[in-house]
Amino acid sequence: MPTTAPSPRLSTAFEQGGTPLSDATASDSALRRFLHGLPGVDAVGLEARAASLGTRSIKTTAKAYAIDLAVSMIDLTTLEGADTPGKVRALAAKAVHPDPTDRTTPRTAAVCVYPDMVETAVAALDGSGVKVASVATAFPAGRAALDVKLADVREAVAAGADEIDMVIDRGAFLSGRYLKVYEEILAVKAECARADGPDARLKVIFETGELSTYDNIRRASWLGMMAGADFIKTSTGKVGTNATPANTLLMLEAVRDFQAQTGVQIGVKPAGGIRTSKDAIKFLVLVNETVGADWLDNHWFRFGASSLLNDLLMQRQKLSTGRYSGPDYVTVD
Predict the structure, then answer these.
(1) Residue 72: helix, strand or coil by DSSP?
(2) 147 is catalytic
(3) Cis bond leading into 140, ω under 30°?
(4) Which of 143, 229, 251, 276 could form a disulfide with 224 if both were Cys (CB 3.0 to 4.6 A apart)?
(5) Residue 163 forms beta bridges with which residues?
């Protein structure tokens, strides 16, 4: 008898390696067998393909499109102990009008804050179309009891958050307690539900820099998607190793394969370490070449990289005026 109910998306029978996914979550041992039965990652091949795609040349017209697309995909974020309502309102204003001198500049996708700042962000962004995301589940370490994590999520959802960015329990994952991680994601997903409006979308953060191997990143990707993630996200941005072309490529391959087998589309969010327009365009090439144009939209791909926005704005100004503006021409977050 199953120890936990499967995610609703697994109710349709389909198989991976001969095992129905709904059966893979029946017990800790079944989930371990499934995850360790996924194909191993060819690290050399993965890194070589990521590097090769990063050399693609983008011409002027395509570059202008890519820069605007990247701006529209940013989750503009402030996650500091010194955050104030004034800082959140200023960030919200920048999200709506990233370049006040050029109102054709796209809005960012979202503003991401701690749960206690969600109400301020919601009020500041009312009617703008910019989403409010909130980190929860004892971000960034995730070291808290489940009831504390769920209370964190409830607070953010009740305050109006459109999206929840949760961190997995890396200690449980790395010690092989996969069902514990799966059940926590299920529980957080349930707290994202609303009776009086659309559910908050759930981004599941793996902290890839702490997972050590590409095989673990692939396993975490499948685990998160099976449990109900709407997005899978590389990192918190709070550790030394964050998003890389290789780990993002691996996660893109995972969502491609998951959609091929389930028909369910999952978003991807690389976060941390993406600072320049050149970097962002490399990631967009990865998206286009791996999962295709369906993901080239901020509903399915995001950048967790607030410092990236200023470089995108300076490159955008250069394309439109022929002059490269210095960093003093954009606001400092």
Answers:
(1) helix
(2) no
(3) yes
(4) 229
(5) 133, 201
Q: How far apart are CA 292 and CA 323, in angstroms?
A: 33
3-class secondary structure, 137: coil
Residues 74-111 have pLDDT tens digits of: 999 999 999 999 999 999 999 999 999 999 999 999 99
Q: What is the three-class DSSP state of 85?
A: helix
Structure tokens at 323: 């002059």
Q: Provide the pLDDT for residue 78.
A: 94
Give bridge partners of residue 304 from the DSSP assignment. Answer: 271
pLDDT at residue 1 in the model: 36
What pLDDT was estimated at residue 12?
Answer: 47
Tell me the one-letter amino acid at 319: L
Whether 165 sits among the annotated catalytic residues: the reply is: yes
94, 180, 189, 269: which one is catalytic?
Answer: 269
Identify the active-site residue in 94, 180, 203, 233: 233
Residues 6+ apart with CB under 8 A from 134: 112, 113, 114, 115, 117, 118, 156, 159, 161, 163, 164, 165
Among the listed residues 186, 176, 246, the one whose alpha carbon sits nearest the alpha carbon of residue 216 = 176
For the question of residue 94 being annotated catalytic, the response is: no
pLDDT of residue 239: 87
What are the distances in angstroms from CA 315 to CA 106, 154, 311?
A: 14, 40, 6
Residue 326: per-residue pLDDT: 60
CA-based nearest residue to 50, from 280, 301, 246 = 246
Between CA 214 and CA 41 the distance in angstroms is 6
Report, as ranges of residue numbers, the positions in the chain whose pLDDT lies below 70.
1-6, 8-19, 324-333
Query: CA 152 to CA 166: how far, in whole Å?
Result: 10
Point out the catalytic residue in the list 162, 165, 279, 311. 165
Question: Side by side, which strands form the sheet with 163-167?
Answer: 75-77, 110-113, 131-136, 163-167, 201-205, 231-233, 267-269
